[in-house]
Amino acid sequence: MDAQGRGRADDIDPADQWVLNPDTGEYELRLTPSAPQSPIPGPRRAGSRGAGAPGASAAKGAGGPAAGRRGGAPARKQSGEDAPARPVPGQRRRRGAPPQEPLPGRRGRRPEKAKKSKTKKALMWTGGTMAFVLVGAGTAGYLILKHLEGNISSTDVGSAAKNGFSKDEAFNLLIIGTDKRTGKGNEGYGDKGSVGHADTNILLHVSKDRTNATALSIPRDLIVNVPDCPTKQPDGSEKVVPGTENVRFNTSLGQDGRDAGCTMRTVKEVTGIAPDHFMMADFNAVKTLTSAVGGVDVCLKHAVDDKDSHLKLPAGESKIEGEQALAFVRTRHSFGNQGDLDRIKVQQQFLSSLMRKMASGDTLSNPTKLYGLADAATKALTVDQGIDKVSTLKDMALELKKVPTKNITFLTVPVLDNPADGKVHKTVIVDQNQAPQVFDAISNDVSFTDVKKKEKAARDAEAARLQGAKSAPSEVRVRILNGGAPPGSAQDTLTWLQNVKGVAKSENGSNAPEKLDKTQLEYAPDQADQARELASLMGLSGSALKPGESVTNAQGLPAMTLTLGKDFKGAGIPLTAPKKAPKVQGQSTADKVQCAS
C-alpha cells in the first residue's frame, strides 16, 4: 500500500509521514515514534504503539528519526506479525480518542508544523529568475536557498550599481547577453576568442506603482562615447579604463578589461537613465532556461533554413528549446533586412513568448519545472553585488510579477543609419529627434501603454501638490545649488529668476554636497506658498517638491533650497514631466503573439 493509502487506513495524516533527513537533505518516508497512548482494544495495527510496547520503530542511530522521541530511549524492533512491512509515522489522534500531548512535528502544535513535501514547498517558494527571463517572467520558483545562492556569480561594479533593492521605488535593470563562448557546446557561436562583448542589451524600467514596465533594447552597433570606467581588479585594487569616443556600444563590455559597470555607465551616458542593477548571461542561459520550461512557442511568417545560425523551422508555429532556441535568437540573415535591428525584433518576440510560458499555470503548478528553472537561471546568471542573494532576486521578480503582461512594452532606441558608414550601413546613431522623448518618458516613469487608473491618480496627485495659495515672486526666498547640472547652471538660474521673474530674494549657494538625478525643491511647512510659486515659475513638477527644512540665507532669513539635478535643461526651460509617452515605431507589448518575418 502506498503512503497515502496507509495514511488513510490508519487515520494518519499523510503530511506527517515525510521527514527531512539532515544527513542527505532529502525528505523521506519515516516513522516518528509517538508519545505513550492508551492501549487500543483489539488487535494491534501497524504503526500503533503503547507505552514501552514493541510498537516503536528501529532508529538508525542517534541521528535517526526516532532520536526526537520523548525520553530519547532507543526504539525496540518489532517482531512477529505485528511488525509492519515498512515503518510509518505515529498516527494522529482520531475523533473520540483520549487526548494526548502533541509531539514535535505534529499538527497539535502550530509553531512546529509537520514538514511539507517537496511539492508543497516548491509551490510556497515561487519567485524570480535571471537576466533575459526576468524581463518576461518574475514567476520562476526557487528552492534550496544555499544551493541556488551558490550558483550565482557576482561582480563588484562599485558606484555604478546601488547597494540594495527597494520594493517601494521604480527600478532600472540592465540586462546583458554576452557573445562569450563559455559553456559546453558553445565553441561555434559568437566571435572566436571574444572577451565577451555586450551583444544583447535591454534596459528594463519597472514603474513605481508596478502598473507597467518598459524593456528598451539598445543596439550593439549603436555608435556611442564610452566614458572612463573604474574597475575592480582581482587583488582588490582599482583600475580606471580610459573612455573611447565614436565606438560601438558592444565594446562597453570586455574591451580593454571593461566590466558590466562600464556598460551601465555607457547606458547612462547615452540615455541619461542610470541603471540600478545589472544581470548578465551567456549563450547557455537561453539553452538551459528554454529546456527548463519545456520549450517556448514561436511563430514564423515564412520557413527558415539559415546556414549561419543553423536554424531550420517551418512557417507557422513551432516549439523550440535548447540549441534550437539559441539559434532562433541569434539568427539575423533570415529576418527583415538581415541586420541587428531586425534581430532585436525577433528577440523581443521570443522574450514575450517566454514570459507568457513562464507565467502560465503549466509552469507555476509544476514544482519540477520551477526548481529546474531556478537552478538553470542562477547557474546562467552574473549580477552586481547589490542583488547577489536569491532572496533579493526573488523580491525583484515578485515586484515585476505585479505588472500585467499587456502593460510590458518592448521597444528599441530610435536610431538612424550612421552617415559616416557611406553606402554600406554597418552602424547606427541615436535619432536626436525622437530618442530624447523616449528617454524622458522612461526617466519620469511614464507608461508606454494606456494605464488609465495610474494616469488619473498621477494627475490628481500632481494637482494636489501644486494646489493652494501662492506667494508673490518678490516674497520667494531660495538658495540655488548645482547638484549635477552643467557648470554655471546655478548662476544662470539665479540671473534668470532675478531679472526675468522678479525673484529678488534668491542667491547662489554654489555646488550641492551630492549630485541628484532630478531637480528638487526642499521647503519648510510654512514655505509651501513660496514653493508652489517657484514651481509654477520654473515649470517644476509636483514630484520635485520635497517637504523638509529651510536654510538661513545671507540676510539671516529662512529660505528654500533648489538643487539643480542632472535633468536640468537650462534656465527658463520647464522640467514638468511628460504626461504621455511618445509612440515608437515597432513597439509591442508582451501579451501579443507575433510572427517573425
Q: Percent of residues in beta strands?
A: 15-25%
Query: How does the major sheet shape up?
Result: 8 strands, mixed
Helix content: 25-40%
Shape: elongated
Helical segment tally? Answer: 15
- Strands of the widest sheet, in order across it, are 3-16-11-4-5-6-17-26
Supply Rg.
31 Å
Overall strand count: 26
- The quaternary organization reads as single chain
What integer is the average pLDDT?
Answer: 76
Note poorly predicted spans.
1-20, 25-144
Structural class: alpha/beta
Q: Report, as a whole number of angstroms, the end-to-end distance.
A: 56 Å
Provide a descriptive summary of the structure in words:
The strands form 8 sheets. This protein has an 8-stranded mixed beta sheet, with helices on both faces. It contains 15 helices and 26 strands. Mean pLDDT is 76; it is low at 1-20 and 25-144. By secondary structure, the chain is of the alpha/beta class. The two termini are 56 Å apart. α2 (118-124) packs across α10 (367-379) and α6 (283-292) packs antiparallel against α10. β5 (198-206) and β6 form a beta hairpin.
